[in-house]
Design goal:
Elements lengths: L2 E2 H11 L2 E5 L5 E2 L5 E3 L2 E3 L3 E5 L5 H4 L5 E5 L13 E4 L5 H27 L4 H12 L2 E5 L5 E6 L2 E2 L4 H5 L6 H8 L6 E6 L9 E9 L5 E8 L7 H37 L6 H10 L8 E7 L3 H4 L2 H9 L3 E6 L2 E7 H4 L3 H12 L6 E3 L9 H15 L6 E3 H12 L12 H11 L5 H10 L4 H8 L3 H15 L6 H15 L1
Parallel strand pairs: 18-19
Antiparallel strand pairs: 1-3, 2-8, 4-5, 5-6, 6-7, 9-10, 9-14, 10-11, 12-13, 13-14, 15-17, 15-18, 16-17
Helix pairs in contact: 1-3, 1-7, 3-4, 3-7, 4-7, 7-8, 7-10, 10-12, 13-14, 17-18
């Protein structure tokens, strides 16, 4: 990974006392592969020398070293265009090792970022990997001032104290309002107050643009322990490139891959193995994890604002989504998301704003080859959730209702009632006693006369009379388990 000259100088300054630095802050340097030549270390594009090697006019009284970018000029003619002179007593080899450590640090960062992009990881992961390297807080907001992701010291702080205490009088909306009025793309904003300490500081803001150069997000560095500098500009550019790779990438996969898999399975075919593997990877699935499928009422704004697709994967980590059959379908790695109903509603509102439409949720599952069945479960739950306002319905909550509704097929439910149960229905209509409720409680209590009488708040002898009258009307073999099951089913159907 190539580093900017200012970044190398900054990192060296953290390790060695830096007294003088000169050079283009955006000049990039290659990895130094140095070898010893007399009193100097030399490479194709990086040159280090002792201060004593410099012409007297260039020494300026410093005891240190020279870092020169470009073809090393003869020492007696020039000290080069990019240099850092340090007041130190380190051996040249020690300086070389420090430079190697700097390059290794950022090379490791680059490798981690590439891995996240290749496996379609989340933007939160990118920020968590980057915030220790930046040594500052990182915040990503959308163009509507919603915080999408944030990190400090490698940990998510979107809802944590770091964002809240950053400035007592500054909100993400205020930040973006100021950012919109500034140019160029990388903006430096200086505020006069940091908390109540009276320290001034700078926030750098970088636009994340879509393919049409529309702003879809703002990336900000918020200083915590130190002010920002030229090297932060360079790092901000690098970070924005990685975020942009993930931002639209997930939306493309969500829009097509999940829909294609559902289409293939719904038609009775087999889904493409590569697409199945991609779904696993997009949800960061590992052995032992479990999925859930969710169906949500399709928000009209999802077509009006393309950024909503891109924002979805940031707000709901380890999940992908697609519009399918007039609704929005989500595949979520429940194990890694650790969601519950309240958190799910918070996620959806963070994604779409005020949104209280119904949501249907399938059972847990592991194999995506069974995705069609769990999509149907979520659809069923969604259809029941629509009957009540602002309700999140799991399939397990409506499983029995669904079974009862569909168990008769194209027949009327009454066609499932045996003759004896129909007689009891007619008898019950003309009686002052609720024989259907009596039968239900008696079966629930395992045909125990004493417990049934207690639940009905009547004397045991009164219940025995009622029971015998009921069995006479039914005229069915109540000792047969199948008869008892059929009667229990009929009781549920009649109530349903």
């Amino acid at each position: 990974m190539r580093l900017s000259f200012s970044l190398l100088s900054f990192e060296l300054g953290l390790r060695i006392s830096l007294d003088k630095c000169q050079g283009d802050p955006y000049k990039t340097l290659p990895l130094p592969i140095l070898y010893k030549t007399g009193m100097s270390l030399n490479a194709d594009n990086l040159y280090i020398a002792r201060a004593s090697d410099l012409p007297e006019s260039k020494q300026d009284g410093f005891e240190g070293c020279l870092v020169s970018s470009g073809e090393p000029p003869p020492l007696y003619k020039s000290c080069g265009n990019y240099f850092a002179i340090m007041d130190l007593q380190l051996a040249l080899e020690d300086i070389y090792n420090q430079i190697r450590e700097v390059f290794q640090k950022f090379d490791d960062w680059d490798m981690k970022m590439q891995d996240i992009c290749e496996r379609s990881g989340t933007i939160q992961e990118i920020l968590d990997v980057s915030s220790p390297v930046f040594d500052n807080q990182l915040i990503l907001t959308d163009e509507n001032s919603k915080v999408l992701a944030g990190s400090y010291e490698g940990q998510n702080n979107v809802n944590g104290k770091y964002v809240d205490i950053l400035m007592s009088n500054m909100t993400p909306k205020d930040l973006n309002a100021i950012a919109n009025q500034l140019t160029p793309t990388i903006r430096a904003m200086k505020f006069d107050k940091y908390m109540d300490g009276g320290r001034s500081f700078t926030i750098l803001v970088k636009d994340i643009l879509d393919s049409k150069n529309n702003t879809i997000a703002y990336l900000a560095i918020r200083p915590n322990n130190r002010p920002t500098g030229d090297h932060d500009h360079w790092m901000l550019n690098q970070l924005a490139v990685y975020i942009k790779k993930v931002f639209p990438g997930i939306s493309r996969h969500s829009d097509h891959t999940l829909k294609d898999v559902l289409d293939s399975l719904s038609k009775g075919g087999k889904a493409d193995e590569i697409k199945i593997k991609h779904l696993y990877a997009s949800c960061d699935f590992q052995m032992g994890n479990r999925f859930r499928c969710l169906v949500i009422a399709r928000p009209p704004s999802i077509f009006e604002n393309s950024y909503l697709w891109q924002r979805f994967h940031v707000i709901v980590p380890n999940a992908i989504g697609a519009v399918y059959e007039s609704n929005f379908v989500i595949l979520i790695n429940e194990t890694k998301s650790l969601w519950d109903k309240s958190l799910l509603r918070t996620w959806i509102k963070s994604w779409l704003g005020e949104f209280d439409e119904p949501i249907g949720i399938s059972d847990r599952f592991e194999k995506l080859t069974n995705l069609k069945e769990y999509y149907l479960e979520a659809s069923v739950a969604f259809s029941y959730a629509k009957k009540e306002h602002d309700l999140i319905m799991k399939f397990d909550d409506c499983r029995l209702d669904y079974a009862l509704t569909h168990c008769s097929g194209d027949l009327s439910v009454k066609r499932l009632y045996p003759l004896g149960f129909r007689r009891l229905l007619e008898f019950n209509r003309s009686s002052s006693i609720d024989y259907l409720n009596t039968l239900r409680i008696w079966l629930d209590e395992g045909m125990n006369d004493n417990r049934t009488a207690q639940r009905l708040f009547i004397h045991r002898n009164s219940f025995i009379y009622r029971r015998d009258r009921m069995l006479e009307v039914l005229n069915m073999d109540i000792k047969d388990p199948e008869v008892r099951f059929l009667l229990s089913l009929c009781l549920r159907l009649s109530k349903h």
